[in-house]
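User: Working on a comparison across species. This one is Phosphotriesterase from Virgibacillus sediminis. Can you predict its structure so I can line it up against the others?
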Amino acid sequence: MSKINTVLGPISPEQLGVTAMHEHIGFGLPGCDLDPQWWTPRHQMLEVTIEKLSRFREHGGQTMVDCTGIGTGRDIPYWQVISRATGVNIVACTGFVAGDSALPYFRNKSIEYLADLFYHEITVGVEGTNVKAGAVKVGVSRGGLSELDERIYRAAARAARATGVPILTHLSVEADRQMDLFEMEGLSLDRVVIGHSDMGMGADIERDYRIAERGAYVGYDTVGYDTEKGTPEQPAPYWSRPREERLDHVMTFFEKGYEKRAIISADANCWPLGWKSVNHSVNELFEVFIPDLKEHGLDDRIIELLLVETPAKLLTMQDPQPNLVKAAKQAVTQG
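Assistant: Here's the predicted structure for Phosphotriesterase from Virgibacillus sediminis:
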């Protein structure tokens, strides 16, 4: 039976609905959520998060993929409370945001060890729970793909092949090498989103065309990080860009006929852990970005494709390959 793993159990593709493919309930680097400078009573975090996701639900949003990886704020019991309170399906990820944010414990682990870890979280459960991850998160370290990043990418590809879940990446830096690594492990690129391709840092429309031509998906998923929002007290983050510039970039991609090879999302934190953010919410998809797209001529059919059809295609677990399932089960810890 076709299914998508969520924090409240598996659902059918028909239950997925309007989906934001790259979001965060709370993300921060390892340990920052314990820093007294940033500590906030959980009830306040919960109140703000429920307000934002209730608004998301009012806009018609039904599902969000939380791309917070291992050790950077993932909190399954907390997410279950939020999902029940708001009615929003939450898909959890295994994997790491990038090698440079992985806990030191994991940094010398082999591809086999990491693949087995990801496989376990997809098929058995995350962090001692019976909640199964529905996607794998990987990413590029500051400065470019590191040797650890490449191990993580190859492990993610093995786990994705063995379970049928998709892979979502952090950063489109060295996109061609990212795709090469997945293909080295035999993963079809139609199970991959190369994320943050709309960031001001390193934006490259020709690269986006290559991603689409090779069969992967382009993640236009930092919507709302606009330079115009910055203030002297809270500057816009370095990955921001002017709102119109992002819009022109995305529309150019669609006008080339690649609308079937993209997803849109906001990469917003309901409550940032340990860092200050400009005002930003998943709801900017509905309140700003989609109206902008429509004003520039994108019709409702394409919006439905971006928010419903393509996410359902990606998140629905594909038939695993039995030989890879066996290999993943037999993987042993190295070091």
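For your comparison, note: The chain is about 40% helix and 10% strand.

User: Helpful, thanks.
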